[in-house]
Amino acid sequence: MAFLDIQHLEKSFGPTRVVKDFNLDIEKGEFVSFLGPSGCGKTTVLRMVAGFETPTSGAIRIDGREVTGLAANRRNIGMVFQSYALFPNLTVAENIGFGLKVAREGKAATARRVGEMLDLIGLPQLGGRYPFQLSGGQQQRVALARALAPRPQVLLLDEPLSALDAKVRISLRDEIRRIQRDLGITAIFVTHDQEEALSISDRVVVTHRGVADQVGTPFEIYNRPATRFVAQFVGTLNLLDADVLDATTGKVRLGGVPVALDQPLNGRPGERISLAMRPESVELGRSDCDRVVLSGEIAAVHFLGSVIRIKVAVAGQFVSLDTFNQPDRPPPSVGTTVEVSLPHRDLLVLAA
Ligand code: ATP
Question: pTM for the full model?
Answer without folding.
Answer: 0.89
